[in-house]
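Saturday, quiet lab. Running sequence design on the structure tokens for the scaffold JK sent over.
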């Protein structure tokens, strides 16, 4: 690579903006997670507030999930082609617009549409990680990427109690006005503090591949998310899964033939990339069960013999230590990855998640043990989620980092959706009658914990099968790709990532 001399040291306003790049990107990631969480306290009351059915209200969650799953790899690819900051600001703008629409309306159709717009924010984390790779020197990159990965859990832990407080003491529209204001601040901060990356992938956008991926993901996630309600063997669900298989078979053929595919399947087939995606799916499954089951368990009535009857605000506060732990442990994750490699960090994180579920199985009656177990799971999630993007960064060319990380986040999303369906199925099959109403038994919750812990162990095994790190330029199968900029040593090897 041609050298252009030393990189000039920024001064004045540009120096300030450079120092704020990481905090601004982290703010965007936290805001994204908050936005996904804030609707949860509203779900029991939304049928009354909107004059709609509970089934219709559930789409305020499903629409965000589907839109996020579809748009994450698409916006990641768009970022690689047209500019990561531009696409990042656009995703945050769509998220903010969705908040404003929710604040202005009580119509369930408008709310579902607005929540789908907010799903675009799922691309914030992979785009931000790609920006960090492009803009930071290797010695700073690892800790910044680890922090960015942790924002998902931090935002979720903050969003639930915040939303519960607003819903309890103010009109529910106020919550969306607040998130809209926070979103507008995020858009302005990104435009001011974040530089546009010159690293681009030239070519024409793969429209056919985008439509095929969107159709396949909608069929898959719709079947997974609605299977418990419609029946897993019902004709609509079986038709959705059959359509998923057909669409993805045709989509794979189209992607392998396309000159500039939306997803480079040949790159995905390489063990370092493909196994990282498998580990992401399994880790997403194992992590999500913790949040789902903990919230239901502590809110269960005391008459069940195990429930604590806590309010939604108290429930959010129970999950808050996990969010704080994720913030504190993200630097440790970066140090472990630098010393031992990210696959070791990923395997360790998955093992810690499994240990957390052992704690949950040992005692799920005492509040302090519940909080301890949930926090241990959150700690393992921090280690695992922080290692995943570093694995991707070390395995793919610089001009494909946003799209590759987008696919990795997509796999986490699919894992979380599958976890939600699996936990619901387990709890439905382990119920007892209380006052004429079927409620989950403690045994059902313990089975769910055991299932998630077992998946975490499989994720640990998958992580250990990922080939060892190969420094860039060391003579491996892939050589460092040509880039459209020359930045000296900052575009060199990724050992410090």
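Result came back. Writing it out in full:
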């Amino acid at each position: 690579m041609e050298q252009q001399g030393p990189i000039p040291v920024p001064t004045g306003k540009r120096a300030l903006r450079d120092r704020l790049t990481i905090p601004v990107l982290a703010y965007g990631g936290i805001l994204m997670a908050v936005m996904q969480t804030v609707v949860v306290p509203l779900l029991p009351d939304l049928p009354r507030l909107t004059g709609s059915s509970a089934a219709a209200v559930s789409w305020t969650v499903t629409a965000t999930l589907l839109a996020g799953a579809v748009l994450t790899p698409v916006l990641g690819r768009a970022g690689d082609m047209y500019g990561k900051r531009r696409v990042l600001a656009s995703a945050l703008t769509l998220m903010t617009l969705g908040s404003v629409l929710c604040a202005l309306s009580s119509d369930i159709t408008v709310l579902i549409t607005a929540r789908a717009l907010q799903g675009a924010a799922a691309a914030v984390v992979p785009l931000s990680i790609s920006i960090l790779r492009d803009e930071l020197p290797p010695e700073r990159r690892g800790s910044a990427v680890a922090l960015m990965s942790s924002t998902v859990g931090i935002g979720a832990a903050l969003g639930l109690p915040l939303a519960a407080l607003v819903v309890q003491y103010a009109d529910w529209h106020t919550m969306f006005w607040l998130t809209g204001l926070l979103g507008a601040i995020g858009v302005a901060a990104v435009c001011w503090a974040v530089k546009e990356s010159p690293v681009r992938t030239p070519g024409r956008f793969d429209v056919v591949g985008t439509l095929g991926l969107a159709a396949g993901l909608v069929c898959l996630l719709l079947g997974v998310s609605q299977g418990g309600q419609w029946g897993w063997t019902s004709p609509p669900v079986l038709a959705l899964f059959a359509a998923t298989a057909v669409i993805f078979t045709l989509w794979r053929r189209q992607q392998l033939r396309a000159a500039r595919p939306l997803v480079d399947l040949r790159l995905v087939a390489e063990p370092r990339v493909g196994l990282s995606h498998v580990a992401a799916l399994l880790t997403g499954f194992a992590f999500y069960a913790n949040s789902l089951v903990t919230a239901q368990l502590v809110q269960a009535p005391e008459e069940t013999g195990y429930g604590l009857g806590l309010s939604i605000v108290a429930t959010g506060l129970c999950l808050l230590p996990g969010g704080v732990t994720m913030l504190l442990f993200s630097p440790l994750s970066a140090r472990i990855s630098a010393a031992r490699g990210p696959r070791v960090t990923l395997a360790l994180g998955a093992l810690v998640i499994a240990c957390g579920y052992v704690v949950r199985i040992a005692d799920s009656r005492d509040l302090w043990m519940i909080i301890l177990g949930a926090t241990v799971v959150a700690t393992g999630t921090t280690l695992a989620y922080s290692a995943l993007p570093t694995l991707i960064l070390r395995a793919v060319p610089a001009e494909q980092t946003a799209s590759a990380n987008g696919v990795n986040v997509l796999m986490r999303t699919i894992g979380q959706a599958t976890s939600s369906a699996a936990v619901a199925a387990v709890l439905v099959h382990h119920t007892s009658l209380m006052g004429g109403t079927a409620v989950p038994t403690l045994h059902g919750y313990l089975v769910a914990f055991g299932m998630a812990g077992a998946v975490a162990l499989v994720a640990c095994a998958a992580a250990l099968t990922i080939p060892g790190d190969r420094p860039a330029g060391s003579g491996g199968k892939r050589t460092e790709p040509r880039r459209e900029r020359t930045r000296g040593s900052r575009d060199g090897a990724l050992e410090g990532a």
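Notes for JK: The two ends are 20 Å apart (CA to CA). The chain is about 75% helix and 0% strand. Ask whether to fix the surface positions before the next round.
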